[in-house]
Amino acid sequence: MAKGGSIRRLRDRAVPPLERCERCVLHLRLCLCASVKPIELATRVVVLRHGKEAYKPTNTGRLVPLTLAQGEIRVFGARDRELDTTGFFDRDRRVVLLYPSPDSVLLARDESDPRPVTLIVPDSDWRRAYKLATREEKLAGVARVHLPEGPPSKYRLRFHPDPRYLATFEAVARALGILEGAQVQAQLEHVFAMMVDRTLWSRGQIAGERVTGGLPEATSSPQ
Predict the structure, then answer these.
(1) Distance of alpha carbon 89 from its chain centroid, rounded?
(2) Contact in structure between 106 and 95 (CB atoms under 8 Å)
(3) d(CA 146, CA 29)
(4) How far apart are CA 119 and CA 169, in angstroms?
(5) pTM higher than 0.90 for the full model?
(6) For 15, what's the count of Cα atoms within 13 Å in the CB-facing half-sphere?
(7) Residue 115's Cα: distance from chain center in Å?
(8) Per DSSP, what are the bridge partners of residue 96?
(9) Strand blocks (E) in the chain
(10) Which of 23, 39, 166, 218 would you call most buried, defined as having the most Cβ atoms within 10 angstroms of its Cβ?
(11) Quick check: 3 pLDDT over 50?
(12) Distance CA 212, CA 209 (A)
């Protein structure tokens, strides 16, 4: 059995990996970029993605610039590279950091402040997000906000023992549901479901008829 297992592993290594889209990072045959049109919103979303998340196909922060005209990604945690906060602090915008620190307040529309919001969102594991929120001097003066309690996460590509923990893009969708309305949240959550379901299908974990939005016409099997 050990010998057979070794042969099997060598055979698997001989099969080249499927090419991925540079933007959504799904396999090219499952690429969802053509199905997504960036939404024009007043809210600007800046994702601060840790360098180690950049090439993970399960990362969801990359969906932000695909779905939002005013969405972008900036890198933190890179060696010998400072966090670029250029343009963060605009007097014409209300700037908040989505992070549930003890001093954070519930995210809500501020009727007394008509300025549009710039929402800064950490995209990493909780340990690195904590370091970013508590030790990054350039973010020291940014107000912290958190989301209200909601339904459990529908992210099925990574596991966390606490279902209240959300994927980055889930958190963005819920935040924009508050700031921009339920229809925007629904649109973003649909894209999120497409990404998750297509990935699960490629792993052979769900049937094609269960994939949100369906599969591209040229796709026939997970392998």
Answers:
(1) 23
(2) no
(3) 37
(4) 13
(5) no
(6) 8
(7) 25
(8) 119, 143
(9) 44-50, 71-76, 94-98, 105-106, 117-123, 143-146
(10) 166
(11) no
(12) 8
Q: Which of 174, 173, 172, 185 is closest to 150 using CA atoms? A: 174
Amino acid sitting at position 82:
E
Burial of 194 from C-beta contacts in 10 A (0-12 / 13-18 / 19+): buried
- Of the pLDDT bands very low, low, confident and very high (cuts 50, 70, 90), residue 219 is confident
Say how many Å lie between the first and final Cα of the chain, rounded: 25
CA distance 161 to 107: 25
- Report the phi/psi class of residue 213: left, alpha or beta, with left for phi > 0 and alpha for psi in -120 to 50: left
- H/E run at residue 8: helix 2-14
* Range of 78-92, 112-126, 152-166, 178-192 with top mean pLDDT: 178-192
Instruction: Quote the CA–CA distance of 177 and 186 in Å, as a whole number.
Output: 8
Q: Average pLDDT of 156-181?
A: 88
CA distance 223 to 202: 7
CB 36 within 8 A of CB 66: yes
Q: Residue 200 is inside which H or E element, if any?
A: helix 182-202
Arithmetic mean of pLDDT, 93-107: 95
- DSSP string covering 113-144: --SPEEEEEEES-HHHHHHHHHH-GGGTTSEE
Residue whose entry in the numeric block shows the structure tokens 């090419």: 19
| Pair of tokens at residue 189 | 């959550």
Token pair belonging to 151:
């339904």
Q: Where along the chain do its domains lie?
A: 37-180
Residues 6+ apart with CB under 8 A from 137: none
